[in-house]
Amino acid sequence: MNSKTISNGILRALAVIAGVIIALWFIYKIQAVIVYVGIAGVISLLGRPIVKLLRDRFKFHNMLAVIITMLLFFATMVGLVSLFIPLIMEQGHNLSLLDINALQSNVERLYLEVINHFGLNTEDVAASLKESTLMSKLNFSAIPDFLNSIITGFGSFSLGLFSVLFISFFFLKDSKMFTSNLIMLFPKSQEGRLKKSFSEINDLLSRYFGGLLLQLIILFTIYSIVLLIFGIDNAVVIASLCALLNVIPYVGPIISAFLIVLLTMSSNVGQDFSEVILPKTIYVMIGFIIAQLVDNFFSQPFIFSKSVKSHPLEIFIVIIIAGLLSGVVGLIVAIPVYTALKVVAKEFLSEYRIVKRLTRGL
Predict the structure, then answer these.
(1) 182 is a domain residue
(2) Structural domain contains residue 217
(3) Is residue 165 situated within a structural domain?
(4) Torsion over CA of 315, 320, 326 and 330, rounded to 10 degrees?
(5) For residue range 193-224, what is the model confidence (pLDDT) as tens digits?
(6) 223 assigned to some structural domain
């Protein structure tokens, strides 16, 4: 091996490294577009069964079926916005005018009432609370700032919404456009197997996201009923937020439980702790537990067995690994990505026993 060959090898390696760095930099710069395309892909997966129903069962033209489907999605989004935005703006306005010192004193009072109710030494707790300066370390002023930043961010949200709907329209109208262009990146000899894989992935993910939507609707309904029965302020907003958090596997329900307890107790500050706050919080938590039981024993088994066709233990391990590698985003995308990889592995690596074992239900 002469010096010229070594030099060429080094130059090629440097070119590859530079190309990878440029590609990663480019992906970082257009990450918003990638997110829009991903969300549009989910919407198209949810809308494809509706388009197919209108086109095949009711004999609508493909364009008309797509337009009707997009109008349904748009009407749903407008309904959600018209329902939640006024409540969020009102809450944000109230908190922006709130006396932060009063809020801090209410939280401290609620904390001391909890300690007193359970028979702990109030003086010791108060002293330790003062020494630890726990409450002083909590930045209560960040609460209204956070909500106000959400409100001011709706301008960019509207642009993102338009982009997502626009991309979704063409995904539904030309459903084979994306897969056809992707297939062109691979050798022609693999075209048949790739088309089969993409078709199966679309079918599985359509059922998965449809089941996930049903899961969120069930949780939202139960949460709303429980919170409305006990007169919790902004019950619908809290229920929707807690239901959406359930999209994050395992971690989401824990955050939802903490959030629903905190908001239930804080909405009744000033009332008797033993007779009002604690009983109401317990009843709300019972409703929350019932919702989680329904989700764990009905919704999730339905989604995993009927859509992604994976064992719960298998899903658990995949989610944990994805969470360790990519955090919250990994938790959310773990199941769809794993399902797609299983389909591809079944088609191209079926000679391996481990692949046969993992994909035997597909």
Answers:
(1) no
(2) yes
(3) no
(4) 30
(5) 888 888 888 888 888 888 888 888 899 999 99
(6) yes
